Please model this.
Amino acid sequence: MPKIIAQAHLAKLCDAFDTEPRHYALAYWTMLEAGLRVSEACQLAWTDVLHEHRARPALRLDRASTKTNRERTIPISKRLAAVYENAWKTHAQRHSIDLACHLFARTRSSGGLGPRSIQRGLSEV
Model:
């Protein structure tokens, strides 16, 4: 049975996200807004963010990263799309991260966040 987040806990989470390192906060916002599982979020690369030439921004999940083994396209809010655009401009381009890198990588040479590190971070919030 899925857990439903109470409004008070949601506000606490949102405040905590602001104090987290950028790549963790981006992962948390992605999971919260797009309803992704931790393992799905960890597989995302910059190439999976679809917003140019689309009426509505979306995330593309390939077959290997989903529980059902089916490719999915998930619409995202304009707010989350703006967060990605800002992260790309302020972080990814500055550190020469290319589009094939993990969405939540800190630097070009580092991999993305793993499920355990995200789960540990969320348990501390």
Observations:
- The mean pLDDT is 76.
- The chain has five helices and three strands.
- The two ends are 22 Å apart (CA to CA).
- The longest strand covers residues 58-61.
